[in-house]
Amino acid sequence: MKQYFSPEQIKVVFFDINGTLMRTKKSGDESFLAALNDFTGRWDHEEADWNPQEVLTQYKQELRTQQKILSGHSKEEIQRASLRQTLKPYPFAINDESVKAWISRIQNKRTSHCELLPHVQTTLSKLSGHYKLAVISNSSKASIISAFKLVGLDQLIPAEHICTSLKKKWKKPNTAIFRYAYKQMGVLPSQAIMVGNSWKNDIMGAAKAGMDAVWLRATPKKLSSLKRVGGRKIIIIKEFQELLELFK
Description:
alpha/beta, 7-stranded mixed β-sheet, 9 strands, 16% strand, elongated
């Protein structure tokens, strides 16, 4: 594969998280149930007829309802409102602190069961000798920091290199988050690359912000290895370690 980038040209390589660097082994449903079990201790309460799957179903239904009611609000606000409504029938003292703690516990359950995708550690280790490595993500910064410590990426991508959506309107693929990220890293868009697995969120967002990008597309289809979007180079790879062939 042709080498497209060099340290003289590119200073920062940005990465997406989920599906690009790592995956969570525990689903959102499993994380909710695990957090629920932590808070309740056991299901056979005398004061209520507990059924964990029913509570989960109620929560998911409430999420859909609150997304419509609270359109324009943050994901965390929608989750908190949904949890409040879900737990109303049950004997809990629901207040702001307990709801925040519950949502945090759900996120921590997912974070504690994450793992790196194949070849990520060795590839990033080699790239870090020549480029600054950073993150652009819609996930919370706190959850990314925790996950990186767990999987050993905190030494390669420090906390100050993690750029996340500060407001809902900045979520990928909004170009604002990409512009914020390269400015935070002190580089021009032409000096940065975005690596991600989502064509819409990662690749199109970066290209519209003036950055070249690498699309990690595992689906085995015959595609040219190079596309252009608005004058920006989009390189397509199937395996994460192929990044080493693109960078000098």
